[in-house]
């Protein structure tokens, strides 16, 4: 099966791996934000994790230890954020930005001398024979363990937040820190632990970039992935499975970008698919905006969904198979799409309706 | 045990002492870092903070100081207006790039016409480019309630792509033997931004930065809009009752900071940088965030902070050529400065008390 030079099986298998760094970082940030803390330093923690993981793996020769090193590096950096915001009550937005600037600086300082080295290979988890099965093999069985780990973590974060006592405490702290404090919970301590978890997850995500995706060390290796992870948390409405969907959507764009650079243009079928996903998100956004008083949004939603297949059919009829796009514009696509999706998901609804934790970004001090 | 206690009113003393303490702490910890890297910490600190102003090559480096401080101050003042109102424009780097690209495009479009109006028009175009780029997050924020932090930041990456396209495509020097980069403005006097006094480092960007600082100070302390900005930042609910329109405020703050960043970009590209190249932007838009905080979000404080940060740039370059200090070490140093500033800042609103302090908990 072939879509104008791009094999969908390879694309899907590729997107699952491409999505891992932003998925892990966004899951960590989901927990952090659910506890009421806005840590904008994800990019910094990822890049430190990428360096920590790379250095550990190169010196020990073990990729598994490398990911552990990435987690430790990310958590250590997030400890600075935790100390500043939870002990010194510093502004979270400013501290998060400082964390990113600092992390980028430290990583490029510490990474000197590691350029051009190949890290140890992270092998596939399951036997080769399983991965050889047509279609299902590469998609379901062909990955390294981090890909399965990221999916397992999605389920774990979802379950913990939804069904456990720990999750309830985290959410209570994030929704109303005063009430949680009155109930006897140590608000700042709980938030500190959540921040460390977020740092470790971002660190593993970063380590996956330098150990498996690229795999080598270059300055600023994460290239904005941390910011996309932050955006995904917002438009996933702070829900883990939606984070997974968002990460796979952007992973898909990233994987496609690589494919297109090889084949020279976007196949019409894939373009239709992207348009369909965007249309679906837009339709959901429109449906949510419509109220009993304004039901006219329903036809609009249907119209939006109908456009991509229409374009596709017209394109096919005219004999267009792929659309040429300059590489430069393709590299900005993830960022433009992030903005578009953010706009759709946040439009027309109040803070309460989007599911944002009520205490998000506010510091807590018991003396108030 | 040490514990924090909220002050009834913010401390005036610590408001002004915080940056000084932060700088001293950064020097100490930075010195330890440099020592760990095998450099003599005293020599490095002296090279960064003393030599550019009083050292052997100070006659040249003092000018460089103004060259670096100009754009930092210009951008930071715009950002500070927004930060004061709780509007977080993080994408100044993108607005800086777009100001440079739009302004340079206007100038290069009429090459090689000679008219004294060309440069002023380019300045306006640069401000417009930055303003328009900042209007994207502003409109999305006011119209669709979209997070301005994320949108303005995403637009930095988009702007960088456009810059790359400009340098290798639509603004590429037709006589440049195929190398990326636009025509050099130093060979096009009508559109250039030269040094105004030889050796001083002062160009129109520096002049604009200093004038803007004074205007912004007047705006914040004397004008109704400045009052509204401060009110919206400190008490958003009170501001709404007072009749301050959040939409207008977002448009004003984002627009102003975008236009100022765009101006900074245009002055940089026509002056010190000389041409549009893939990497003419050197992260001023991000460093300006540190400058804004270091200057206590106060225009006059920002001028001082801008010079201090320029010192770390100029001195850092010296340290890197003379002592072999990696350039990234300066970036770490700047990040540390912001950390210490944010940490020490707790003393403005809180005081440390010894003991269990049950009395204060009972009082309030």
List descriptors:
heterodimer; A: 368 residues; mainly alpha; 2 strands; 1% strand; B: 364 residues; two-stranded antiparallel ribbon; disordered C terminus
Walkthrough of the structure:
Chain A: Its main location: membrane. Chain A: GO terms for molecular function: transmembrane transporter activity. The complex is a heterodimer of chains A (368) and B (364). Chain A is an all-alpha fold. Chain A has a domain at 8-238 and 346-354. Chain A is built from 17 helices and 2 strands. Chain A has helices at 8-18, 20-34, 42-60, 63-87, 92-110, 128-131, 136-141, 145-163, 165-175, 177-182, 187-213, 225-235, 240-263, 268-289, 297-317, 327-346, 351-354; strands at residues 266-267, 322-323. A two-stranded antiparallel ribbon of chain A has the order 1-2. Chain B has 364 residues and is mainly alpha-helical. Chain B has a domain at 69-308. Chain B has helices spanning 12-36, 41-49, 51-54, 58-84, 92-109, 118-144, 148-170, 204-222, 224-234, 236-241, 246-270, 284-294, 299-322, 327-344, 346-349, 358-363, and strands spanning 3-6, 350-353. A two-stranded antiparallel sheet of chain B has the order 1-2. In chain B, helix 8 (204-222) runs antiparallel to helix 13. The longest helix of chain B is centred in the first third of the chain and has 27 residues, at 58-84. Chain B starts with a strand and ends with a helix. At the A-B interface, helix 4, helix 5, helix 12 and helix 16 of A face strand 1, helix 6, helix 7, helix 12 and helix 14 of B.
Instruction: Provide the helix percentage of chain B.
Output: over 70%
The coarse silhouette of chain A is globular
Q: Name the largest protein-protein interface in this structure.
A: A-B, 46 and 50 residues
Order of helices and strands of chain A: HHHHHHHHHHHHHEHHEHH
- Whole-Å distance between the termini of chain B? 20 Å
**Could you give the distance between the termini of chain A?**
64 Å
Low-confidence stretches of chain A: none
- What is the structural class of chain B? mainly alpha
Strand order of the largest sheet of chain A: 1-2
Transmembrane segments (chain B): 12-37, 57-83, 95-111, 117-140, 149-171, 202-220, 249-267, 287-311, 323-344
Membrane topology (chain B): Multi-pass membrane protein
Organism (chain B): Fuscovulum blasticum DSM 2131
InterPro entries (chain B): ABC_transp_permease (IPR001851)
């Amino acid at each position: 099966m072939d879509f104008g030079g791009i094999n969908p099986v390879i694309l899907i298998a590729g997107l699952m791996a491409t999505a891992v760094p932003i998925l892990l970082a966004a899951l960590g940030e989901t927990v952090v934000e659910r506890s009421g803390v806005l840590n904008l330093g994800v990019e910094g923690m990822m890049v430190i994790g990428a360096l920590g993981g790379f250095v550990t793996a190169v010196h020990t020769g073990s990729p598994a230890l490398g990911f552990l090193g990435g987690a430790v590096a990310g958590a250590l950096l997030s400890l600075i954020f935790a100390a500043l915001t939870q002990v010194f009550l510093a502004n979270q937005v400013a501290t998060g930005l400082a964390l990113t600037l600092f992390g980028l600086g430290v990583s490029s300082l510490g990474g000197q001398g590691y350029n051009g080295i190949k890290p140890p290979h992270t092998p596939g988890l399951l036997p080769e024979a399983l991965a050889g099965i047509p279609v299902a093999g590469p998609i379901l069985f062909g990955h390294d363990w981090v890909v399965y780990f990221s999916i397992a973590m999605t389920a774990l974060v979802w379950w913990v937040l939804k069904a456990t006592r720990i999750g309830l405490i985290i959410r209570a702290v994030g929704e109303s820190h005063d009430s949680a404090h009155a109930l006897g919970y140590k608000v700042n301590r709980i938030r500190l632990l959540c921040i460390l978890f977020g740092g470790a997850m971002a660190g593993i995500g970063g380590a996956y970039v330098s150990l498996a995706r690229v795999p080598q060390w270059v300055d600023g290796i994460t290239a904005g992935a941390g910011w996309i992870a932050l955006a995904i948390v917002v438009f996933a409405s702070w829900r883990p499975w939606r984070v997974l969907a968002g990460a796979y959507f952007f992973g898909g764009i990233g994987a496609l970008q690589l494919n297109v650079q090889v084949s020279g243009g976007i196949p019409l079928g894939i373009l239709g698919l992207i348009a369909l996903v965007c249309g679906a998100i837009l339709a959901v956004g429109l449906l949510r905006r419509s109220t009993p008083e304004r039901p006219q949004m329903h036809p609009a939603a249907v119209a939006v969904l109908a456009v991509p297949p229409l374009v596709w059919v017209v394109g096919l009829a005219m004999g267009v198979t792929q659309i040429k796009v300059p590489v430069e514009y393709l590299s900005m696509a993830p960022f433009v799409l992030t903005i578009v999706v953010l706009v759709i998901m946040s439009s027309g609804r109040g803070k309460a309706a989007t599911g944002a934790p009520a205490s998000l970004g506010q510091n807590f001090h018991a003396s108030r | 045990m040490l514990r924090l206690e909220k002050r009834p009113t913010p401390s005036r003393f610590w408001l002004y002492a915080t940056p000084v303490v932060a700088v001293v702490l950064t020097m100490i910890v930075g010195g330890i870092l440099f020592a760990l890297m095998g450099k003599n910490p005293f020599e490095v600190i002296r090279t960064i903070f003393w030599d550019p102003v009083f050292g052997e090559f100070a006659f040249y480096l003092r000018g460089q100081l103004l060259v670096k401080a100009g754009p930092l101050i210009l951008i930071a003042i715009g950002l500070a207006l927004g930060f004061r109102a709780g509007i977080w424009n993080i994408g100044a780097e993108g607005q800086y790039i777009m100001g440079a690209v739009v302004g340079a495009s206007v100038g290069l479009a009429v090459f090689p016409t000679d008219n004294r109006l060309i440069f002023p028009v380019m300045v306006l175009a640069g401000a417009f480019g930055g303003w328009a780029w900042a209007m994207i997050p502003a409109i999305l924020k006011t119209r669709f309630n979209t997070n301005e932090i994320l949108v303005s930041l995403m637009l930095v990456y988009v702007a960088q792509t456009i810059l790359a396209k400009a340098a290798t495509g639509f603004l590429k020097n037709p006589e440049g033997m195929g190398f990326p980069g636009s025509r050099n403005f130093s060979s096009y006097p009508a559109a250039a931004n030269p040094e105004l006094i030889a050796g001083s480092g002062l160009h129109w960007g520096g002049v604009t930065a200093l004038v803007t600082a004074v205007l912004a100070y007047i705006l914040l302390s004397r004008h109704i809009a400045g009052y509204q900005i401060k009110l919206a930042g400190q008490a958003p609910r009170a501001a709404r009752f007072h009749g301050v329109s959040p939409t207008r405020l977002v448009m004003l703050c984002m627009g102003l900071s975008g236009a100022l960043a765009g101006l900074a970009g245009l002055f940089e590209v026509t002056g010190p940088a000389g041409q549009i190249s893939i990497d003419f932007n050197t992260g001023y838009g991000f460093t300006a965030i540190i400058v804004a905080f270091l200057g206590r979000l106060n225009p006059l404080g920002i001028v001082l902070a801008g010079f201090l940060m320029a010192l770390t740039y100029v001195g850092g370059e010296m340290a890197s050529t003379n002592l072999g200090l990696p350039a990234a070490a300066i970036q770490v140093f700047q990040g540390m400065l912001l950390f210490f500033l944010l940490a020490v800042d707790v003393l403005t609103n809180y005081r440390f008390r010894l003991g269990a302090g049950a009395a204060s908990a009972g009082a309030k």
